């Protein structure tokens, strides 16, 4: 048609139509223009409904020199003329036009770049352009059908964890950092590489057992890891990727298999608690730790709540401490080699509470105030907050690990002296077991349970969200109290 149109436009003679009558030149040109417009409209529709790059490739193969002419025509119909021109010009070493995202490497291989559902740049490779196109088509088909590597059953545990975490916008920065740190340290390079669709119950159990054997983790730590793994598979179940959650019941089995009481946190006895505080208060080396240890043992607050405690949170007149925030010290989310402090609100409403001060706690805080009049106060600012009570030797806020290290140094020094002293006095030594900041919280709760029959009061003072936590500690405390009562009874009764 284009050929005859060109001839007719340069001649003055009419042409006989197929029906034998003569066609006027003007009428002929009008009909050709209409026909050309129709053809271009069809081409335009094909481009919009199908893969335009594949269509252009076919033009390049079949039309030869006419390709440039058709491109010029289509450019008037297609909005993005730059893209059309780019498609017409970008070629591989064999002269074949490359699509957007396609590239031929220096080694001759082909690559296709695309963006995954998480916004990450990814690539697929092939030795031949046609094979690459085949992979592209499958990828595009999966995406158009609402599928990706996740639903295709090729997603790893790591992939789903990242997907899960991307939806947890409500997480506090400290919690988010903690989740990432725990997962990256124990899961990502091992269990995390498994395909979600292939993980079985036994795989999860084997992984948990290995964590306790190889890493010497306690059941409580494994339970924390379980709180990350279980929701991963729960998400996969909800998305109909797998039918059942392979992590269901794993922790219950682990806890059942563990030796009864072996991994259970134990409170200090009253003699051990008294010995630890007395030694710290009278030590020429460790006496500055006495106020902090006293407040920890005398309030039952979490270590983050204590290191974040400010003078504004203490009401000396009413003798109460208002717990309304916590300070954490964790690895920086942007830099694995750097740690930073952050302030956060309690995870639950139960964490916001007023704790009455014991006389010992009141005196400890007064001592700390007197010390700071001589040594200087804590000048550190964290997330806009300042005026923190406790300070380390550098005048900054303590970190939990530093406090735990101090507890160990004090306990070791006391035990060494106590062994020698007991031997001289010919008695059994009162030794202090290894314990941490959280053992101090547990110890306070145990003492409170021994004296307070109202479990609800205990729950509010401790800030427990779940009363079952309080009941478990209460049951242990009362069990010990029953044993001590029977011992006292046997000493007083002289009837057997």
Describe this structure in words.
With 496 residues, this protein is mainly α. It folds into three domains: 101-148; 157-257, Tyrosine recombinase, N-terminal domain (DNA polymerase, domain 1, Orthogonal Bundle); 270-486, Intergrase catalytic core (hpI Integrase, Chain A), CATH 1.10.443. It is built from 19 helices and ten strands. The strands form four sheets. It has a three-stranded antiparallel β-sheet with strand order 3-4-5. β4 (110-115) and β5 (121-126) form a beta hairpin.
Throw out a few tags for this protein.
mainly alpha; hpI Integrase, Chain A; 3-stranded antiparallel β-sheet; 10 strands
CATH class of the largest domain: Mainly Alpha
Gyration radius over CA: 38 Å
How far do the termini sit from each other? 124 Å
What structural class do the secondary elements suggest?
Answer: mainly alpha
CATH topology of the largest domain: hpI Integrase, Chain A
Shape: elongated
Q: Helix amount, in percent?
A: 40-55%
Average pLDDT, all residues? 81
Looking at CATH, the homologous superfamily of the largest domain is: Intergrase catalytic core
As for the number of domains, it is: 3
Which spans of ≥5 residues are poorly predicted at pLDDT below 50?
1-23, 59-68, 74-82
Taken in chain order, the helices and strands follow as HEEHHHHEEEHHHHHHHHHEEEEEHHHHH
DSSP helical segment count: 19
In CATH terms, what is the architecture of the largest domain? Orthogonal Bundle
Q: Count the strands?
A: 10
Largest sheet: 3 strands, antiparallel
Give the percentage of residues in beta strands. 5-15%
């Amino acid at each position: 048609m284009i050929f005859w149109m060109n001839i007719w436009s340069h001649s003055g003679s009419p042409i006989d139509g197929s029906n034998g009558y003569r066609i006027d030149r003007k009428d002929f040109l009008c009909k050709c223009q209409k026909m050309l417009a129709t053809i271009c409209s069809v081409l335009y529709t094909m481009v919009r409904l199908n893969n335009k790059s594949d269509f252009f490739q076919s033009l390049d193969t079949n039309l030869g020199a006419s390709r440039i002419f058709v491109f010029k025509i289509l450019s008037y119909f297609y909005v993005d003329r730059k893209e059309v021109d780019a498609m017409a010009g970008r070629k591989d070493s064999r002269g074949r036009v490359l699509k957007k995202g396609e590239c031929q490497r220096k080694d001759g291989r082909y690559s296709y770049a695309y963006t995954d559902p998480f916004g990450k740049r990814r690539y697929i490779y092939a030795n031949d352009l046609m094979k690459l196109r085949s992979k592209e088509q499958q990828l595009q088909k999966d995406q158009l059908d609402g599928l990706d590597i996740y639903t295709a059953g090729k997603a790893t545990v790591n992939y789903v964890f990242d997907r899960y975490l991307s939806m947890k916008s409500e997480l506090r920065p400290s919690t988010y950092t903690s989740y990432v740190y725990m997962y990256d340290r124990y899961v990502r390079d091992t269990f995390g590489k498994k395909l979600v669709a292939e993980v079985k119950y036994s795989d999860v159990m084997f992984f948990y057992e290995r964590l306790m054997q190889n890493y010497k983790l306690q059941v409580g730590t494994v339970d924390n890891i379980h709180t990350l793994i279980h929701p991963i598979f729960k998400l996969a179940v909800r998305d109909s990727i797998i039918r059942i959650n392979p992590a269901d019941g794993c922790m219950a089995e682990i806890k059942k298999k563990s030796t009864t009481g072996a991994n259970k946190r134990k409170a200090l006895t009253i003699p051990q608690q008294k010995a630890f505080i007395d030694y710290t208060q009278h030590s020429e080396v460790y006496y500055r730790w006495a106020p902090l240890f006293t407040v920890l043992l005398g309030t039952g607050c979490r270590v983050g709540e204590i290191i974040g405690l400010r003078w504004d949170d203490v009401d000396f007149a009413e003798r109460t401490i208002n717990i309304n925030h916590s300070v954490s010290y964790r690895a920086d989310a942007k830099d694995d080699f750097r740690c930073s402090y952050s302030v956060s609100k309690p995870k639950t409403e139960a964490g916001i509470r007023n704790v009455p001060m014991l006389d010992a706690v009141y005196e400890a805080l007064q001592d700390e105030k007197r010390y700071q009049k001589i040594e200087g106060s804590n000048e550190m600012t964290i997330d806009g907050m300042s005026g923190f009570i406790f300070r380390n030797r550098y005048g900054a806020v303590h970190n939990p690990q530093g406090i735990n290290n101090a507890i160990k140094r004090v306990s070791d020094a006391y035990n060494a002296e106590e062994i020698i002293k007991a031997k001289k006095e010919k008695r059994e030594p009162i030794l202090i077991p290894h314990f941490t900041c959280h053992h101090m919280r547990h110890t306070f709760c145990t003492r409170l349970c021994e004296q307070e029959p109202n479990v609800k009061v205990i729950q509010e003072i401790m800030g427990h969200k779940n009363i079952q936590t309080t009941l478990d500690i209460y049951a242990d405390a009362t069990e010990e109290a029953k044993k001590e009562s029977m011992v006292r009874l046997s000493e007083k009764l002289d009837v057997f």
